[in-house]
C-alpha cells in the first residue's frame, strides 16, 4: 500500500459515514425532549465556540473573524445558552467530564465578560470528580486578572497557540512576541495558572530546518509543559497564506520527504527520554500529566454538547450544528453510523485495544478489516500483539490516511450486507 498524498487532520477521516447514509433531520423539539430524559451513563463533554480573534494567524480560515467592537452581546448569548440548557435533566442529574472552550480565541473576552461566562458555567454545570476544563488561548491576550478568574472558576487546562518558538517561524505565522519573550511569558503563565499548560506546534513552514523542529521539542521539555500538539502546516483556502501563495509572495512546496523528517525529528527529540509519549496522532503528552480527555470523549463514543455559533457535537445519536444564534441543525444518526464512527475514532491513537474492535465490528466487517490489516502489516504501518494493534513510525506519520482507508474499506465492502 502506498499513499501519494498525506491527510494531515482527523477531519479527513471523520464524518465519512454520512456520505453512505442520507441525513435524517429531526426537529429542535425532538432534541429538547431528549434532554428531558434520564441522562445516559456515557462520558460527556461541552464544547463552547468563540468565533473571534484579535489577531488572525496567517494559515487560518476556521470559523472565526477579526474582532471589531465589543463582545458584550456574544458573551450574553453564551451565558443565556448555559442558563437555558442548565434547566434540563441532561445537566441537572449528571456531571460533566470535559468542558472545552475553542475558537477563535476564547480569552479574547474582556475580564468582566469572561467572568460572567465562567459564572454561568459554574451555575449550571456539575463537574465530575476528575473533570478537565480547557480554554484555548494566545499569550498576548492573557492578563493576570483573566488568569485569576480562570483559577477561581475551575479552569484547569490551557491550550496555548504557540505554533513555533523560532523567530522566523513566529513571523511567518503572524505570532506576537519573539522566541525569548514567548518562553518568558510561558514561564510566568506556569507560575500563575493553577492547572496544566499545553501548547500547539505547527511544523513544516517553508524555511523551517530540522534543527528548528528539534529546538521546539527541547524547549517544551525544558519548560515542563503538559503536552504539545504537532500539526503539519495546512494551507486553507481563504486564509492570508493562501492569498500570499496565489500572489507568489510565499512559496510553499509539498515535500513529503522533508515533512516526514520534521515530523520524526520532533517526535524523536520530545520522546527520547521517556518522559513524553505519543498520546494520539497529533499530540505528545508528559506521562502522568495531560490526559486530553476532550479528544478521548469525542472519539470513544461520548457526548459532546455544542454551545456557540460554529459549534458542533452530539447528544446520544443526535448530531447538532450551531449555524447562527437562533439557527441549529439536528441530524439523527443510525446505530450503524454511531458504531462505525466510534470504530474510526480508535485509529486516532497509536495503540488500539483488539477487544474494543471486536466488540464494535460484526463478523462480516471483522473479516474485511483483518484482510486489510494483513496488508497494513505487510507495509509496516501496523504491528500486532496478543492484545493490541500498534502504529509503527510509518503508521504514525500516515495515521489519518490509515484511519480513512480502514473505515472506507470496511464500509464499502460490507454496507450492502447490513444496510436496511
UniProtKB/TrEMBL annotation:
Gene Ontology CC terms, in alphabetical order: cytoplasm
Gene Ontology molecular function: 4 iron, 4 sulfur cluster binding; catalytic activity
Chain ranges of the Radical SAM core domain: 38-273
InterPro entries linked: Coproporphyrinogen-III_oxidase, Elp3/MiaA/NifB-like_rSAM, rSAM, rSAM_horseshoe, rSAM_sf
Gene3D superfamilies assigned: tm_1862 like domain
A GO BP annotation: porphyrin-containing compound biosynthetic process
Name of the protein this chain belongs to: Radical SAM core domain-containing protein
Organism: Cetobacterium somerae ATCC BAA-474
Amino acid at each position: 500500500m502506498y499513499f501519494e498524498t498525506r491527510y494531515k487532520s482527523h477531519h479527513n477521516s471523520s464524518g465519512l459515514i454520512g456520505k453512505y447514509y442520507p441525513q435524517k433531520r429531526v426537529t429542535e423539539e425532538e432534541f429538547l425532549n431528549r434532554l428531558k430524559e434520564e441522562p445516559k451513563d456515557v462520558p460527556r463533554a461541552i464544547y463552547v465556540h468563540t468565533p473571534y480573534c484579535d489577531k488572525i494567524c496567517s494559515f487560518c480560515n476556521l470559523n472565526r473573524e477579526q474582532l471589531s467592537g465589543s463582545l458584550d452581546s456574544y458573551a450574553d448569548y453564551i451565558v443565556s445558552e448555559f442558563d437555558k440548557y442548565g434547566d434540563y435533566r441532561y445537566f441537572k442529574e449528571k456531571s460533566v467530564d470535559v468542558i472545552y472552550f475553542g475558537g477563535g480565541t476564547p480569552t479574547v473576552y474582556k475580564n468582566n465578560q469572561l467572568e460572567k461566562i465562567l459564572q454561568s458555567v459554574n451555575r449550571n454545570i456539575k463537574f465530575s470528580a476528575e473533570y478537565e476544563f480547557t480554554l484555548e488561548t494566545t499569550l498576548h491576550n492573557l492578563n493576570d486578572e483573566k488568569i485569576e478568574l480562570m483559577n477561581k472558576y475551575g479552569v484547569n487546562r490551557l491550550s496555548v497557540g504557540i505554533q513555533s518558538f523560532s523567530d522566523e517561524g513566529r513571523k511567518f505565522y503572524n505570532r506576537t512576541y519573539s522566541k525569548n519573550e514567548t518562553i518568558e511569558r510561558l514561564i510566568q503563565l506556569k507560575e500563575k495558572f493553577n492547572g496544566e499548560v499545553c501548547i500547539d506546534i505547527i511544523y513544516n513552514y517553508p524555511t523551517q530546518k530540522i534543527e528548528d523542529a528539534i529546538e521546539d521539542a527541547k524547549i517544551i521539555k525544558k519548560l515542563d509543559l503538559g503536552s504539545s500538539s504537532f500539526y503539519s502546516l495546512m494551507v486553507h483556502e481563504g486564509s492570508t497564506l493562501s492569498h500570499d501563495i496565489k500572489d507568489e509572495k510565499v512559496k510553499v512546496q509539498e515535500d513529503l520527504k522533508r515533512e516526514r523528517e520534521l515530523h520524526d525529528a520532533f517526535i524523536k527529540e520530545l520522546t527520547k527520554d521517556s518522559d513524553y509519549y505519543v498520546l494520539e496522532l497529533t499530540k505528545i503528552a508528559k506521562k502522568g500529566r495531560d490526559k486530553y480527555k476532550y479528544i478521548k470523549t469525542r472519539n470513544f463514543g461520548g457526548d459532546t454538547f455544542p454551545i456557540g455559533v460554529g459549534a458542533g457535537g452530539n447528544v446520544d445519536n443526535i448530531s447538532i450544528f450551531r449555524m447562527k444564534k437562533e439557527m441549529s441543525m439536528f441530524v439523527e444518526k443510525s446505530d450503524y453510523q454511531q458504531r462505525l464512527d466510534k470504530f474510526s475514532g480508535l485509529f486516532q491513537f497509536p495503540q488500539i485495544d483488539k477487544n474494543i474492535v471486536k466488540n464494535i465490528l460484526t463478523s462480516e466487517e471483522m473479516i474485511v478489516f483483518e484482510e486489510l490489516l494483513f496488508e497494513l502489516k505487510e507495509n509496516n504501518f501496523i504491528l500486532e500483539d496478543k492484545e493490541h494493534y500498534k502504529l509503527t513510525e510509518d503508521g504514525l506519520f500516515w495515521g489519518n490516511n490509515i484511519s480513512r482507508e480502514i473505515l472506507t474499506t470496511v464500509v464499502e465492502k460490507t454496507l450492502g450486507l447490513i444496510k436496511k
